[in-house]
Specification:
By secondary structure, the protein is mostly beta strands. It has a single domain, classed as PH-domain like (Roll). It is built from one helix and nine strands, in the order E-H-E-E-E-E-E-E-E-E. Strands 1, 2, 3, 4, 5, 6, 7, 8 and 9 form a nine-stranded antiparallel β-sheet that branches. A hairpin with a 5-residue loop joins strand 8 and strand 9.
Length: about 120
């Protein structure tokens, strides 16, 4: 499958709609920097939401796990959001941060995004 790049003017609305569809869908985040870094930040924990704050120019990805502390993953000055969608919905989201690192969010099952 190929990725579709989301226009920056649509980030805030799209991420609000995605968050409404999540229902604590298990997800994982991998941070990739070619030749420098490749590590997992999470491993299949319930994703509570993703938001974009245009004023501070940050994307916040937040998880809520009953047995763990809540976990926030902040991406300052995002440059791009690329979406991989299948027939059932969103499968993977790649967010390129201001330092060029890719923050890859994978969903354990496809998330149908309404609207």
């Amino acid at each position: 499958m190929s990725y579709v790049h989301l226009e920056k003017s649509k980030w805030e609305d799209y991420l609000k709609r995605l968050t409404k569809s999540l229902k604590e869908t298990p997800a994982e985040i991998e941070v990739e920097a070619l030749g420098i870094l490749d590590k997992y930040e999470t491993d299949w924990i319930p994703l509570a939401g993703i938001s974009y704050d245009p004023k501070d120019d940050i994307i916040s990805i937040y998880f809520e796990e009953p047995n763990l502390k809540n976990f926030d993953h902040i991406i300052p000055h995002p440059q791009d959001i690329a979406l991989e969608e299948g027939d059932a919905g969103l499968l993977t989201m790649e967010i390129t941060g201001g330092q060029g690192y890719k923050h890859v969010v994978r969903f354990k099952q496809a998330v149908p995004v309404q609207g």
